[in-house]
Amino acid sequence: MRTTVGIIGAGPAGLLLARLLHVAGIDSVVLESRDRAYVEQRQRAGILEQGTVDVLRAAGAGERMDREGLRHDGIELRFGGKRHRVDFPALTGGKSVMVYAQTEVCKDLIALRLKDGGPLLFEAEALAVEGAEGDRPRVRFRHQGAEEILECDWVVGCDGFRGVARQAVPAAVSRGFERTYPFGWLGILADVPPSHDELVYARHDRGFALLSMRSPSVSRLYLQVPAGTDAGSWSDEAVWDELERRFETDDDWRLERGPITQKSVTPMRSYVHEPMRHGRLLLAGDAAHIVPPTGAKGLNLAVGDVVTLARALVHLRETGSAELLDAYSATCLRRVWQAERFSYDMTALLHRAPDATPFDDRLQLARLERIAASRAAETDLAEAYTGFPLA
């Protein structure tokens, strides 16, 4: 099998890259180790930055998103019983975000890929990336019980932190930067309309809580819990009781309860792999970087990577110049580190560390008061949340 761009992984990064290349007339093959049902059902991110929304629309993948997604023009911060709304359009020149689950983005991109007739192989497990230093890299993979070879001009690893792509970069040229957090998120899906029309980020002495949603009838909520917590150790009643405590306000706001349909714990970590290119192997999305979910940056960073990469590949085809490809890693990493910084700051601002002192608590509250009182501080948060430029 032969193609111009071999893409490992059919998550949002790999699928969007394939779509952008198709629109530009560049052929690709997508290999995905899981089956289609798994890809379309795995729960991940749900917040799309303004730039991500614009890219999906321009790629012809925004019709259902615009029909079913929920545009949000702000978020609410809660602390000390008080509520403060951050107005995105007023602070950013009109930017907003969209609540539209990663599962739905993948469904839309898969449908387009199959409609276009582009090769998308499910249950095709990538075994190794070979020859990345030369002109003809290849991916060894297993599909339908047989081992096959995909020969490419370029290989793009969109196969996550544990995928074969990142492992193919020699240790001698790799650097990893990592931080693990002593807490995670206990997340639930519940069949109940959201108790607020925008996301609520709550800082409480008992720990962080987040009120989000997947639709007008399905709520997505999170609680900060110690690292290693078993989701099964929390009864449904205990989850709702704790959420109610952490979202408490001085007014008459109420948290609506409903049947919990899913419960899981997400670990929290920050990770960056440098460089994001080795020879003709390029990394994108979680293969190159991971952020804690507090800043809603994971999927959006992946979109930034593949937009940058697609532009570089189109530039190479049209001009013969590899200038943008040579700059791919450095270009992406500037944006990645800003997102890492913002995600870390939001995490430190809202979560209570296990060893937090009363002094630490007061500093958190002082920082939140500053955001509520200062347009400059509020603007910095709004600009970062709605998205850094895709360049």
- Radius of gyration over all CA atoms, rounded: 21 Å
Give unreliable regions as ranges: none
Helix content: 25-40%
User: Number of DSSP strands?
Assistant: 20
Outline the biggest β-sheet. 8 strands, mixed
Structural class: alpha+beta
Shape: globular
Distance between the termini: 33 Å
Mean pLDDT: 96
Give me the side-by-side strand order of the main sheet.
6-5-14-15-16-13-17-20
Beta-strand portion reads: 25-35%
Number of helices: 13
Report on this model:
It contains 13 helices and 20 strands. It is of the alpha+beta class and 391 residues long. The protein has an eight-stranded mixed sheet with strand order 6-5-14-15-16-13-17-20. Strands 8-2-1-12-19-18 form a six-stranded mixed sheet. It has a three-stranded antiparallel sheet with strand order 3-7-4. Helix 1 runs parallel beside helix 6 (102-116). The longest helix is centred in the last third of the chain and has 23 residues, at 328-350.
Write the layout of secondary structure elements.
Layout: E1 5-8, H1 12-24, E2 28-31, H2 36-41, E3 47-48, H3 50-58, H4 63-68, E4 70-72, E5 74-79, E6 82-87, H5 88-92, E7 97-99, H6 102-116, E8 120-121, E9 124-130, E10 138-143, E11 146-151, E12 154-157, H7 164-167, E13 175-190, E14 199-203, E15 209-215, E16 218-226, H8 236-246, E17 260-274, E18 277-278, E19 281-283, E20 289-290, H9 298-319, H10 323-326, H11 328-350, H12 358-373, H13 375-386
Parallel strand pairs: 1-2, 1-12, 2-8, 5-14, 12-19
Antiparallel strand pairs: 3-7, 4-7, 5-6, 9-10, 10-11, 13-16, 13-17, 14-15, 15-16, 17-20, 18-19
Helix pairs in contact: 1-6, 1-9, 9-11, 12-13
